[in-house]
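seq as requested:
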Amino acid sequence: MIDKEVILIANGDLRLSANRTCQQAQAEMEERIVAAFEKEGVSVKRGHTYDPEKQHGFIDSQKYGMEVFRAIRKDAPIVVAEAVWQYSHHILHGLYRHRGPILTISNWSGTRPGLVGMLNLNGSLTKAGVEYSTIWSEDFEDDFFVDNLQSWLSAGRISHDLSHVQPYGGVPQGAEQTGLAFAREFRERKAIMGVFDEGCMGMYNAIIPDELLHPTGVFKERLSQSALYARMLTVNDEEAREVYDWLFDKGLKFEFGSDEENELTESQVIQQCKMYIAAVRIAGEFGCDTIGIQYQQGLKDLTPASDLVEGLLNNRERPPVYHEESGEELFPGEALPHFNEVDECAGLDALVTYKLWHRLGYPPETTLHDLRWGRHYRGGGVDDYVWVFLTSGAAPPAHFIDGYRGAVSERQPPMYFRLGGGTLKGISKPGHIVWSRIYIQNSRLKFDTGLGEVVELPKEETEERWRLTTPQWPIMHAVLKGVSRDQMMGHHKSNHIQVVYAPDEPSARNGLYAKAAAMKELGLEVSLCGEI
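struct tokens:
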């Protein structure tokens, strides 16, 4: 039985602008949470105060987080309430050795990325071996929320329906043999993962320890974002202009303005073109098979955003890049799989996917998305729960309706990207996909995968979903086969989800089975999720 008082904390972003922007949504959510607890006879005490100078009430640094936890009783019930993106390391230290029950809560809203933040915290706690419960709600009055809250208050834990998760098994022999042969060759050949600094935005769950990564045959090349910036300075304007002209000729539209503070400008895009060239050249120099740029904290203070760069890297059809001295084209005709925000779990997944899909003869372009939000949609042949998969610009044009011609580059939101830079925005084309996630639990690499379908929604619905989330970013309307909203939220151990297209549904199923077999052979514990 939970005490008659719980401690509520609100972990936040490191960026002041993000915390200020999301403060109102956080306050409104907390008011509803407090009311829900009080209805059950439990009072809520906030573990830290609103800061009038900063104009927000979030824990905004690891230092401050430690101050907060020094004043919290070690066995007190703790509620972590999230209506904003949060940096897990701000509070992980306190939760790591906390003895009382822990509950993570988020509002079901796409406008403020609390859901994404909560999923990241959940994945980080899972990796750290910290027991916790989790719950979400639109209004904190629905039966699902109330019933689960009562369970936590009475037993200190919540058990979600995870019947959609099944252990590896039933894999057709042909697909299994393909996956096994691929994995053995992959591990024997070995691969290099280029990491431009680790731990982006507090994502502890996104760092794979070397001792878990090496048995797969993948080894990190630890690179510095300062080296990437220095290499950008060696790229001349003419080279960058050639990349820009290539994109323009392919039909990519740029929404330019003149206000550097709030609008996209050509000079910002030219800097992004220089970053693209520099990244490819460094990858070629170090023999990287996949790379991840952190961008946040450091690089964000020097250059425009990296997301246009990342989307180009993930596409086989992209502007050519040549070695400075030999003139040799680097990675001709191939993507250089990029894992957004240096999510190494996604990086390993992307690399295996890209190479295996090549082997299968399927389109190999792959990307991660944020598992951002969703709602049921009925109309135009669709009657299902349709997720909003959204990323900050790293999706490849090969995924979009009409490719480059269906894409537009818009300025990244100033709240997150002070120096601007363009996105690579498009609507993902209808088709069959395989989704997946690598994560760490009980000191083991684990792999979940399932089938999905990207559906086309009316323009008005797409625009509404963009308006309710982040309208500058590429979007995917995804239906997950045999997995409900609450099953997905109750089990998924990350803010990110990896996706790749297949030519048709039988091909997607064959690819899923082959990839599951490959991951198992590489040493991961595999689960098949939903209807396979």
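The chain has a mean pLDDT of 97.
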